Amino acid sequence: MSPLPQTGHEHHERIREHIDRLPDLADMLEQRPVPDEFASAFAHECEFFTGTLLPHIETVANSVYPELERLQQNRHSMAHLRREHDEMRGIIEQMREHKGNVEAGGMKPAMALEMRRLCIRFYALVKTHIGEEEEYLRVLQANLSEGEQAAVEQGLEHRTSE
After folding, report:
1. pTM of the predicted model, to two decimals?
2. Are 151 and 61 in contact (CB under 8 A)?
3. Using CA atoms, how far apart are residues 161 and 116, in angstroms rounded to an integer?
4. Percentage of residues in the chain with pLDDT exceeding 90?
5. Dmax of the chain from CA atoms?
6. Residue 151: what pLDDT?
7. In the chain, which ranges are continuous DSSP H helix?
């Protein structure tokens, strides 16, 4: 089994591939009319966020954060990262709602602007969040036994779908 930070990094790389597409989608939303290819590209990313990112969020919250809280005796709570997970869930839900509107056609400039804000906000949130999670995985690696790390690593292994 690979070291815990490497496992987390591999999961995060799959997420980064999709998150890194958001600035391009946001740029498409500035064009009038919004390019036709936006709808399929946006739908693809929404499917990834729903099918892969949401399960990843749940897995990390249930396997990694409890170990960090235990190690740090709740002095350095994971509350801020849990709040960010809640914010991510909310943004994904908003994107899913917009996906239906995009598929229905006739995107108005106000909706395009709102979607652009969501894309940029989500991009910044996830990029910084992933960086912090990777630092915390190093903390776990330095403080857990190999068996404890293997248990956390197994918790990180979850279904990914593209």
Report:
1. 0.91
2. no
3. 25
4. 72
5. 56
6. 87
7. 4-19, 22-28, 37-48, 54-63, 65-71, 79-104, 109-143, 146-156
